[in-house]
């Protein structure tokens, strides 16, 4: 069942931001043992990889849809959802063996990209080709889909509120960020944020919306209700993605043209350090794209699409611990800690 719903702003009760000391990164962990599973969408290889983090080896690779991009794991860790950017569906696989168990079609020209598997059990995805956001209720059961138009070109990446009432997109073509009320028929709110906003991440407590604008070389802290810009922070060049540490104390941008990371103290909205992942002249070859945190906030994983690798970075020291091999054009990633 598919319903098309118009939407708009409604007030959320969002708590004030709480973060730890801006200068504390946690104890240095060096090359201590890493456990868990990393999933990688290989956009040029049209495949999905499973990497065992204990050994650092790819243990499974299966064919996927065309040009797969972002990934999200289910709250219970049993499944991973894949946005089929080259098609119209969100496909779901078992995390144990990458067996495909469901394919949810979002309609003509959908081009799903950003994806969130919420703690409430539902899936949310952008549909860039339809200028909309989809709410997929009971994805492993009835798979009901509800569509919310953004009215903006290139609705690409996605964040969803902890209570599931609101979603936010970055709209590359329109150079805007859009707030979508998922429970009413009110119109969405869109604001211009820098040049070509792409990365987006919500603080764990829902108090601040972080956006990276790749042509501005900046990160922006927005009020998620009013959509007003609270702070601007200069970053490295071409900050394609932004990710907030699970503890909420730091945000990191992945700076494509620098081949590095910019670390932002979320309490003070200041740049506190930079982490180099690529040597001089390497950035263009490695083509760093997606970045994600480990569940414990000790590691950052950066997909290097040009070299079919993922850099595993120790956050405390800023050292690249190892590079993990993926399929061709590894981009979107999702992670599960040891269970």
Automatic annotation (TrEMBL):
<dbReference type="InterPro" id="IPR015943">
    <property type="entry name" value="WD40/YVTN_repeat-like_dom_sf"/>
</dbReference>
<dbReference type="InterPro" id="IPR051200">
    <property type="entry name" value="Host-pathogen_enzymatic-act"/>
</dbReference>
<keyword id="KW-0732">Signal</keyword>
<dbReference type="InterPro" id="IPR011048">
    <property type="entry name" value="Haem_d1_sf"/>
</dbReference>
<protein>
    <submittedName>
        <fullName>YncE family protein</fullName>
    </submittedName>
</protein>
<feature type="signal peptide">
    <location>
        <begin position="1"/>
        <end position="18"/>
    </location>
</feature>
């Amino acid at each position: 069942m598919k319903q098309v719903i118009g939407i708009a702003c409604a007030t959320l009760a969002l708590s004030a931001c709480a973060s730890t000391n801006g200068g504390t990164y946690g104890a240095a962990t060096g090359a201590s043992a890493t456990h868990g599973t990393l999933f990688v969408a290989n956009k040029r290889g049209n495949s999905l990889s499973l990497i065992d983090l204990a050994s650092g080896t790819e243990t499974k690779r299966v064919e996927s849809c065309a040009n797969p991009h972002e990934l999200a794991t289910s709250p219970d860790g049993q499944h991973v959802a894949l946005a089929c950017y080259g098609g119209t569906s969100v496909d779901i696989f078992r995390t144990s063996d990458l067996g495909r168990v469901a394919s949810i079609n979002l309609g003509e020209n959908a081009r799903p990209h950003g994806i969130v598997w919420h703690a409430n059990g539902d899936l949310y995805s952008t549909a860039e080709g339809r200028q909309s956001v989809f709410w997929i209720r009971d994805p492993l059961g009835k798979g009901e889909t509800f569509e919310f138009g953004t009215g903006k070109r290139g609705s690409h990446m996605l964040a969803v509120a902890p209570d599931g009432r609101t979603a936010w997109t970055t709209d590359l073509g329109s150079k805007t960020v859009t707030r979508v009320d998922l429970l009413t028929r009110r119109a969405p709110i869109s604001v211009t944020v820098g040049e070509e906003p792409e990365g987006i991440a919500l603080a764990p407590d829902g108090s601040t919306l972080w956006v990276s604008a790749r042509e501005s070389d900046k990160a922006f802290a927005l009020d998620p209700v009013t959509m007003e810009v609270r702070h601007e922070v200069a970053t490295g060049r071409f900050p394609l993605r932004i990710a907030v540490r699970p503890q909420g104390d730091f945000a990191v941008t992945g700076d494509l043209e620098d081949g590095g990371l910019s670390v932002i103290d979320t309490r003070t909205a200041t740049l506190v350090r930079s982490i180099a992942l690529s040597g001089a002249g390497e950035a263009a070859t490695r083509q760093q794209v997606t970045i994600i945190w480990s569940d414990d906030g000790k590691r950052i994983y950066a997909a290097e699409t040009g070299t079919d690798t993922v850099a595993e970075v120790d956050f405390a020291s800023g050292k690249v611990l190892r590079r993990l091999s993926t399929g061709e054009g590894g981009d979107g990633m999702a992670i599960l800690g040891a269970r």
